[in-house]
Amino acid sequence: MNSPFAPVGTHVRLADLSDRGERARIDDFVLAHPLGTPFHRPAWFCSVAEATGNAALALVAERAGALSGLLPLDCIASPIFGRVLASSGFAVDGGLLVQDGVDPQAFFDAVRELAERYSCPTVELRGGLLPQAEGGWALQDGSHCTFARPLAEDDEAELTAIPRKQRAEVRKSLSADLEVHAGRGEDALAEHYRVFCESYRNLGTPVFPRKLLGAVLRAFGEDADILTVRHEGQAVASVLSLYHKGTVMPYWGGGTWAARRLRANERMYFELMLHARRKGMHSFDFGRSKTHSGAYHYKRNWGFEPRALTYASWTAPGAAMRDMNPQSAKRALQVRLWQRLPLGIANRLGPLIARGIG
Q1: 125 and 194 both lie in a single domain
Q2: Domain harbouring 141, CATH code
Q3: Domain residues for 315?
Q4: pLDDT digits (tens), the chain, 358 positions
Q5: Which of 27, 61, 244, 352 can pair with 38 through a Cys bridge, CB separation 3.0 to 4.6 Å?
Q6: H/E/C letters for each residue in the chain?
Q7: 22 and 47, same domain (yes or no)
Q8: Does residue 335 sit within a domain?
């Protein structure tokens, strides 16, 4: 699995991900690169591929015996959504990383060749260096935004950093009859997944397999955990977070219908800020949201400023562009129908569908 690609100027090859040493070299490269994210790490793209039955791939370049470029990939197949080569699968980032002097075009040429080899009519690059909008490549700018800011120096400063109206909601949550627990065990995962399933059904989105969340939680070790808010012994809000180079990222989370009344989500995110600082984190990455969506405005209410994201996609000649926009007419109808499903049916069907969303 180390077939060479030979664009002019930079030699790109397919990494051997069955080799522990190769995976360790990739991880070291990501941790050392200033733009490396959790989604570039083998702990992410190898785990999600294995848990969803898809294939993990990685294009790498070397210089003087050391890695000088990386493009992690998941080859995702779905009878509903088609086949896509995504960097990285089930992620909001994870695009091309290179050192100075490495030709990025060599990777863009190589990934198109790889897509053809794996019968994927679509390539999606989420973040990182991006190609020019030519040769089948298209750029999507501003459809999503990300939100991040530094953590405050202490608990009281964290509270006062929140804008007044949202701070009032957090204060109410702090006086409510709520309990907060953080953990990494199977019990924490099971409790989290029950909340996660209900939350995703209510949003009209097929829920990811529990195996996917568990695989990421185990692969990241101490760099991942679950924080759960309970009311009268029942979990009402829960989030699985990643920790990377001083930043906490609440990634897979949600709440039950009761969470809004109890302000459990407000408690959850505020407690996560405090919990992350105690773990030595210095910044809070609130993640990606569709521009001007409800989640987008919710994060702004917390005092986070949006930063527009740009993604790139390549579509093979003659193939239709992959439509994953939840606000398109087709997807919006599917969302409304999914929201009406009984929770038990949504929980059985959701993982079968979601493993191909990517």
Answers
A1: no
A2: 3.40.630.30
A3: 4-145+309-322
A4: 455 554 446 799 999 999 999 999 999 999 999 999 999 999 999 999 999 999 999 999 999 889 999 999 999 998 878 899 999 899 999 999 999 999 999 999 999 999 999 999 999 999 999 999 888 899 998 889 999 999 999 999 999 999 999 999 999 999 999 999 999 999 999 999 999 999 988 888 888 999 999 999 999 999 999 999 999 999 999 999 999 999 999 999 999 999 999 999 999 999 999 999 999 999 999 999 999 999 999 999 999 999 999 999 999 988 777 765 555 556 666 667 767 778 788 777 767 777 778 7
A5: 244
A6: CCCEECCCCCCEEECCCCCHHHHHHHHHHHHHCCCCCHHHCHHHHHHHHHHHCCEEEEEEEEECCEEEEEEEEEEEEECCCEEEEEECCCCCCCCEEECCCCCHHHHHHHHHHHHHHCCCCEEEEECEECCCCCCCEEEEEEEEEEEEEECCCCHHHHHHCCCHHHHHHHHHHHHCCCEEEEECCHHHHHHHHHHHHHHHHHHCCCCCCHHHHHHHHHHHHHHEEEEEEEECCEEEEEEEEEEECCEEEEEEEEECHHHHHHCHHHHHHHHHHHHHHHCCCCEEEEEEEECCCHHHHHHHHCCCCEEEEEEEEEECCCCCCCCCCCCCHHHHHHHHHHHCCCHHHHHHHHHHHHCCCC
A7: yes
A8: no
Whether the pTM exceeds 0.85: the reply is yes
Residue appearing with tokens 């955990």: 225
DSSP β-bridge partners for residue 86: 74, 124
Q: Which amino acid is at 354?
A: A
Q: How far is CA 287 from the centre of its chain?
A: 8
Residue 130 sits in the same domain as residue 217: no
- CA 271 – CA 229 distance, rounded (Å): 9
Looking at the fold, whether 189 and 254 belong to one and the same domain comes out as yes
AA letter at 78: S
Residue 107 · residue 98 · CB < 8 Å: yes
Category of 305 on φ-ψ map: left (φ > 0), alpha (ψ -120 to 50) or beta: beta
Both 245 and 187 in a single domain? yes
Closest CA to 45 of 77, 83, 90, 112: 90
Give the other-Cβ count within 10 Å of 141's Cβ.
12
Q: Which amino acid makes up residue 274?
A: L
